[in-house]
Amino acid sequence: MGFGEYPAEYNPKVHGPFDPARFYGKPDIPFGEVKLGEVGSWLGRRSIGGLPSALSRAFWRWQHKYMLPKKTGIAPFCQLAIGAVTFFYVINYSKLKHHRNHKYHW
């Protein structure tokens, strides 16, 4: 699957209009139903190559739930603001930890 192309499993006659938040592949067994002897093969079916697709689907699910409804509330903007604050705190933590107030004992 190249950039901007439909997944190979997508069939417009079967699935209808394309939804970027939906996985069109064959569903796998949920982790809760995996037997102990099958854990190795179940983990082997997980690949790093599927991570960008999973992140894209998660982004589109968030868009459909919070940003694209007609009457959107304040929730997506608060989520973005809290996410930005957290991200910048994490990347600047090494500089911020030197500005702590220490109590020196004599």
UniProtKB/TrEMBL annotation:
Q: Which GO terms describe its biological process?
A: proton motive force-driven mitochondrial ATP synthesis
Q: Which UniProt keywords apply?
A: ATP synthesis, CF(0), Hydrogen ion transport, Ion transport, Membrane, Mitochondrion, Transmembrane, Transmembrane helix, Transport
Q: Where in the cell is it found?
A: Mitochondrion membrane
Q: Which Pfam families match?
A: WRW
Annotated InterPro entries: F1F0-ATPsyn_F_prd (IPR019344)
- Segments traversing the membrane: 74-93
Q: Name one GO molecular function term.
A: proton-transporting ATP synthase activity, rotational mechanism
- Give a GO cellular-component term: proton-transporting ATP synthase complex
The record's similarity note reads: Belongs to the ATPase F chain family.
Q: Which PANTHER family match?
A: ATP SYNTHASE F CHAIN, MITOCHONDRIAL-RELATED (PTHR13080), ATP SYNTHASE SUBUNIT F, MITOCHONDRIAL-RELATED (PTHR13080:SF20)
The molecule here is called: Mitochondrial F1F0-ATP synthase, subunit f
Species for this entry: Halocaridina rubra (Hawaiian red shrimp)
